[in-house]
Amino acid sequence: xxxxxxxxxxxxxxxxxxxxxxxxxxxxxxxxxxxxxxxxxxxxxxxxxxxxxxxxxxxxxxxxxxxxxxxxxxxxxxxxxxxxxxxxxxxxxxxxxxxxxxxxxxxxxxxxxxxxxxxxxxxxxxxxxxxxxxxxxxxxxxxxxxxxxxxxxxxxxxxxxxxxxxxxxxxxxxxxxxxxxxxxxxxxxxxxxxxxxxxxxxxxxxxxxxxxxxxxxxxxxxxxxxxxxxxxxxxxxxxxxxxxxxxxxxxxxxxxxxxxxxxxxxxxxxxxxxxxxxxxxxxxxxxxxxxxxxxxxxxxxxxxxxxxxxxxxxxxxxxxxxxxxxxxxxxxxxxxxxxxxxxxxxxxxxxxxxxxxxxxxxxxxxxxxxxxxxxxxxxxxxxxxxxxxxxxxxxxxxxxxxxxxxxxxxxxxxxxxxxxx
Length: 421
Prior knowledge:
By secondary structure, the protein is of the alpha/beta class. It folds into 2 domains: 5-254, 3-Layer(aba) Sandwich (Peroxisomal Thiolase, Chain A, domain 1); 264-415, Peroxisomal Thiolase, Chain A, domain 1. It is 33% helix and 19% strand. The chain has helices at 20-29, 64-69, 72-88, 111-121, 139-143, 146-156, 171-184, 202-210, 249-254, 283-296, 314-328, 341-344, 351-365, and strands spanning 5-14, 17-18, 35-36, 49-50, 100-105, 162-165, 190-197, 240-248, 261-270, 305-307, 337-338, 367-368, 391-392, 397-404, 408-415. The two termini are 16 Å apart. The model has no long low-confidence stretch (mean pLDDT 95).
């Protein structure tokens, strides 16, 4: 029997939406959730805008202790995992906890707590010799990114493989890919796969300010994330998490589970070229797409929707456009392509999992989300980028791609349950 991984549960914490239902409503309405930063005083920074989550830990079901001890990224992951399991109808760890796995991605780990604790132990940076007595008891957990995967595993009573994937901005896609692989190879029957990041802190904002990657459009935060638009001027930082319940397909069918989509294929490449630079021909992303399509046993013209990385930087948008043309051929001009970063910002490692959640929901509802704020298309980005308004159409196969600092390029194909391949 060929083992195949399917999505049976979705949990989301996103800018502008807590919960998968609210997330899908925001996307299909084309609403933007980017705004001036409120999580810290951003006065003096070049970019002072972000896609922040309106997240109340206790209102989202966390205990007072969890709200106190867990980093914000861990809180997002735990809440998303609980929603995904409830959505799937599975009880944590049942029937065999050794057959449950966790594959969680994160680009920057527990950044907010680490920065806060450094301020605490150093007297706001004044003391070279830090005072360990001022540190939070969970400081070691904040230092070790794998604590995020551990926290999700505790929620799921998962005693199988537990992995933290940190590949920059492709972490979310790569974590879902790894979770699917564990099911396909027979290592696990259930995997909680996704990613989380809460990077809206002074150190992260300063890093992107330094390389001028983020938008300085502080006066119009709601329209600052403009992928594929001629007047775009950088990406808008975001935060959030998405966790998917992946199951072996036949087992999911036997228990009568609702199946959103199947993880049909995936591929990844690196450009071995530059830490932040991209070659204009898009060759490495195109190769990742080719591998994903081959693994899914699909021709390029079988793709009904492309969920783009669409960060809103001129370099990325043009690189991606070239990659789609190179990998999909003439079909690139016919298939709808959109970027949800236009609405929720770029949550670094988490965004890939949020995009996979959006793709699964697009298949489930037969709706393609739009690219918000796309009023003046860049002539060099000459594909159908679904400007402003969601589009209803049959969606049976979706391609989602990601591009990350370090030269990482990833592609993942989802198909409708029962779709012919």
